[in-house]
Amino acid sequence: xxxxxxxxxxxxxxxxxxxxxxxxxxxxxxxxxxxxxxxxxxxxxxxxxxxxxxxxxxxxxxxxxxxxxxxxxxxxxxxxxxxxxxxxxxxxxxxxxxxxxxxxxxxxxxxxxxxxxxxxxxxxxxxxxxxxxxxxxxxxxxxxxxxxxxxxxxxxxxxxxxxxxxxxxxxxxxxxxxxxxxxxxxxxxxxxxxxxxxxxxxxxx
Length: 205
Fold this sequence. Notes:
Elements: H1 22-105, H2 117-159, H3 167-173, H4 185-189
Helix pairs in contact: 1-2
């Protein structure tokens, strides 16, 4: 014959374990009711602390990006200033040499009868050639300075603009206390501290 389910073995001494009474259930519910706000408050404090760290991290990352671009811009300015300053020095020295050549061809020229004709001819041809090369050098130095300055401006304005965040980007960084109310109840709001997972926020990567 088929036998019914086996009855639980009696406890030591031949007595059954007493069932949980209504008062015990009420006491457990009351304890849970008192513990729930504390757990919720603890989790809310941790949530806001984590959100504050996230906001600080994101703002610091934006600051690092701006500083990085500022370093690039400073490097471009320094490299451009090397060419500009060197060209300015060439321009200054060439202007002095041009003045010397003009003086030697004008008030300081060798008069006829003082030296042979071939010396006068050689002297004037040499001065004219030097004047032409010095004039070309001055023009090239001026052009190099202008090109370096224009390329510096072009790189600063078109390729190395500071990555300043706009309003939507800043709105995506900030955190509100209302975000805690949209989190999962079991995993975040009423998470048992030290007993469940890591409690990592759902917005973390």
